[in-house]
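Hey, I'm writing a tutorial for new members on how sequence and structure tokens pair up, and I'd like a real worked example in the thread rather than a made-up one. If someone can provide the structure for the chain below, I'll link this post from the tutorial.
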Amino acid sequence: MPDSPLIQHRLINQQLAQPLFTRPAELVAWFGAMQAQDYAAAKWAVGLRLPNTTDAAIEQAIADKSIIRTWALRSTLHLIAAEDIRWLLTLVRHRLASQCGTHYRKLDLNEAVFAKSQTAMIRALEGGQQLTRPELKDALTQSGILTHDLRLNFLLGNAAFDGLICFGNRRGKEFTFTLLDEWFPHTNRLVRDEALASLTIRYFTSHGPATLQDFVWWSGLTVTEVKEGLDLAKSRLISEVIQGQTCWMASQTLDYTVLPTVHLLPSFDEYLVAYKDRTAPLGSLGLSQIVSAGNGIFSPVIVVDGRVVGTWKRTIKKAAVTVDTHLFFPLSEEQQQAVALAGTQYCAFLGYK
């Protein structure tokens, strides 16, 4: 059983223990946004928090347009509930531009180039078209827009920040892009203070207990904006000093009794990536033990009672999937059995027996 109140609360609030939801869009809305640059990992991040769901069910939620994948917080790919997409992008848009400014200058990208590229994207995608990255690159090239090096990445990202494009359905294994206004035209629009309060409440409700700096890291907003958000949301949140830090969480009373738990978390799971300070789940482990050297990629981790105890990886063959583990600490026989069961549940999620 978790030995830290902070970990107990996070396991509950992160929906890793006592899950509340049955639909993918409800879960994603609870989080506000879920990191999703690794598509397979993002689907499992949703799936492991929804009892008895499948990879196919998460794919269907995306195809049904209840969840949208696009560049959002910290200019990183996220899953966002469709109803929230526009107010969230509007809220963080100014930060996304400033975070990419150095790259824009190096690549000779400016407002004129972005305007020309977005005009070309509209022309290529209007009428419900869904184009793959190579197809959209060809359309831009034919319009006289350079797409060498990282230029295409930032042209697409900028269009996504502006709410022009988002990911559509996959075509085989290839991702497609489509116009957001045609993909999901009816979404909630909030004034700035409402949006800031909403994102603040959602973060600390789903990720709490967490610090102001944790929210700054996750959202990409400034310290000033986060303080303003806390002020706007103070009636829905409470603060508590935990291990010398002021942490915020939802004010509602929940049962935070957590039974022993074991989870196989995917890379970039919100349980780890959403905090600036990751000491609680890592304990004595160094971040380098779960992050690939040089590329910043988080490994899938094994979590026992809220603590990282090892890493895991999958191998998919034609008719089966295997889960291999690497432990940092010895586990009891009961814990080893629980890890094996978690692997079986992951295989079932993918549709393998």
